[in-house]
Amino acid sequence: MPADYQSTARALALPVDDESPSRSQSPIWRRPRQSGSFMNGRRPHDYPPNWYGRLMYKSESVGRPILSRYMRLSPPYRLLVALVAVSAFVFGILFLVYNERIFASLSPAAKRWKDVRGGWLVLWLATFFVSFPPMIGYSTCMTLAGFVYGLPNG
After folding, report:
1. Whole-number Å distance between alpha carbons of 14 and 121
2. What is the pLDDT along the chain (154 residues), one digit of tens a residue?
3. Closest CA to 105 of 149, 150, 153, 147
4. Residue 81 contacts by C-beta under 8 Å, 6 or more apart in sequence?
5. Cα 112 from Cα 8, distance rounded (Å)
6. Which of 12, 81, 130, 145 fits a 20 to 30 Å CA distance from 109?
């Protein structure tokens, strides 16, 4: 496409209006602000100034859609979601309380894995495959490698 320098020079030589354009003359790329487009209808000066107010505002804005989605579920699915959430909470607390016993019981398996001739290759391949493209499991592979092979080798 050849460059049209004449039309570019004419466009740049046009005078610039200092008056603000009316709403009908505003550029296409600028849309009028809607009431719900900025912080659920709040203006910036309505935003809470202290950290506690901001935390409460953010938690409400995150929790409200989650609660509305939960309430749209049928009762059996609500029960299932509640059971999964309670069991995850209980297992998390149990893991925090009994983590030393859990890792002590896994120590013999880690020693056997370390003695396997190609055991490091399994961890290396697992780490490689969860890294490209990035997927869930990279930190688990790294933790497992550190647990089995120790700090300098894992």
Report:
1. 68
2. 456 777 777 777 777 665 555 555 656 666 655 555 455 555 555 666 788 888 888 888 888 999 999 999 999 999 999 999 999 999 999 999 999 998 889 889 889 988 888 888 988 999 899 988 878 888 888 888 888 888 776 5
3. 147
4. 70, 73
5. 74
6. 130
